[in-house]
Amino acid sequence: MPVRGPVPVNLATRQAAEVLKVGPMTIHVYEDGSRTGDRVSAILLELPAGVSGPPMHWHRFHDELFFVVKGTCRFVTPDAEVDATAGDLMTVPPGAIHTFKNASETEACEVYMTATPGHYFDYFRMLSKAGTEGKMLSKEEIEHLMALFGTFPPDNESEPVDLALRLTKIDDMLSQTPGHAKAMKTPLKLRHQLR
Question: Are strands 63-70 and 72-76 parallel, antiparallel or unpaired?
């Protein structure tokens, strides 16, 4: 039987969470995968009243779980719109076309979200960085950024083939983020260390 050393547990508090602004949404990054071997990451999405999330999309590489903490979150798929209220959980497996929005015009909505693998949340960091720098991304730029993380509009049936090229572009974009360490450059591990 292999010998293993002690493995620490980690408490992530809202006060210590990294805070990102993506448009009108506020995102609290509790776990970016750096303490889980990139197996899972977790954020809290704050959606003001009437705010929609991203455009319809699907993910090639990762599962998402959305646990509604406050308010009502409407999940939209090609087949239906489903309202989830506080205490409800929505599971989104790879390949499922979806989006979400705050279903209320008067109340804020909070949704705890996990993704596997954990590297996906670097996508939010990149969107936040663009917004902080005052850049308005075009539809094509947003779709390119989504594709870097294996996320595509509904009409795309597959991902780009050149994984090494995608990783190089991610590394280049992340290396320009002030205060963040250089991203690891290995196609075997998609996690990019940003701290």
Answer: unpaired
Length of the chain as a residue count: 195
Residue 90 CB contacts under 8 Å (≥ 6 apart), including other chains: 65, 66, 68, 73, 75, 82, 84, 100
> Could you read off the pLDDT tens digit of each residue along the chain, which spans 195 residues?
567 778 889 999 999 999 999 999 999 999 999 999 899 999 999 999 999 999 999 999 889 999 999 999 999 999 999 999 999 999 999 999 999 999 999 999 999 999 998 888 899 999 999 888 888 888 888 888 888 888 999 988 765 545 445 556 656 666 665 544 433 333 333 333 333
Write the DSSP symbol of residue 124: H
Q: Round to whole Å and give the CA distance between 11 and 184.
A: 25
- What is the separation of C-alpha 119 from the centre of its chain, rounded to a whole number of angstroms? 8
φ, ψ (nearest 5 deg) of residue 173 = -65, -40
